[in-house]
User: What shape does this take?
Amino acid sequence: MNFNKLRSAEFLVSAALLLVSGVFLVESLQLPGGEFDPLGPGAAPEMVASVLLLLCSVVLIRTVRVGSGIAGKIESGENISGSPVDKTPRSLISFFCLLVAYIVAFQFEVAHFVVITTTFVFLATVALRGWDFRSVMIGASVAVILSLLLFLVLTRFFVIRLPGAF
Assistant: This one.
């Protein structure tokens, strides 16, 4: 697969995520304010959608304006750090599917927030980096630490009800 196809896949997935994030942001802004919660029920979706909008915008801009130095490395099958890179959009499609599964699992509260988030972050890290020992170890470490920190911050500081929190 050539570089242009990879760029177009990256562009399309980022544009789709941008659109979904925009819809989530608009819908969460329409939620009524909370009676006992100063931030209201839309605070968490607003924060997540805003960060996703920002990150997708950065990816879209980078995809359109990618420099020839980085493009040459990616074209040769090498990423900026020098390790091999998957030249297919499979990792982007996998990430998008994982994101949809995470949103559905979160919406229907299929498990505790920490379990859902740990699983998502681990699988997303491995899907984007690959299934080598280092990626698995980094994914596992980041997933557990990030999930626990997010749970504590969102439930204790922002008093947001998360699956399994109360």
